């Protein structure tokens, strides 16, 4: 078995457990891990395909908790800028994209780590701005999560509502993003093969993560562990990109 495929399968399984438990983190962990062995133009559509499958499974269990009023503004903003991110993915060189991804995730993780009592602005302009940032990052690297995560986890919404709303966001935006990738010719035979290969570890990880959430719901402690993991992976990926390209 190709060691790159084995590494990718383990990364997807671990990221899926995190996703199933917290409602976020899959694309961020996968992007950092898979970027170590595959080019961004391959990583992005693979992550989108997998995230759609995982989000659909989780959405069917949590749709009744979604904050549709706030989420609608975020989705509209994302729809505007998502094609711009996809265009940038096609034309931007590999190394700058990897560095950009690592810096974005590192910044978001540090911000989440220090966030305690901050409350986000939930007005229409704020939700649109969050959506526009998320849409661009979704198209560029399947990383629309950080702006939305910061938005929901810096508010006083219940954990169940924040988690369900992020699941719904990822499902809608990932569908838009993969459509843009198809239009841009980024969904190759290699992408389809990798997505099928990773489907089993994805499903198993999502199932385990969701079961852990339903049983323990100690989201605050688990989230801090995830954030520290993201910080570590960001530093590793950033160092690799700067030193080896």
Question: What does this protein structure show overall?
Answer:
Helices cover 82% and strands 0% of the residues. The relative contact order is 0.21. It has one domain (3-244). Helix 5 packs antiparallel against helix 10 (219-244). With 245 residues, it is mainly alpha-helical. The model has no long low-confidence stretch (mean pLDDT 84).
Annotate the secondary structure layout.
Elements: H1 3-22, H2 26-34, H3 40-62, H4 68-91, H5 94-114, H6 124-141, H7 145-153, H8 159-183, H9 189-215, H10 219-244
Unreliable runs: none
What is the global morphology? globular
What structural class is derived from the secondary structure elements?
mainly alpha
The biggest beta sheet is recorded as: none
Tally of DSSP helical segments: 10
State the end-to-end distance. 26 Å
Task: Indicate how many domains the architecture comprises.
Answer: 1
Q: Helix coverage percent of residues?
A: over 70%
Number of strands: 0
Summarize the structure.
With 245 residues, the chain is mainly alpha-helical. It contains ten helices and no strands.
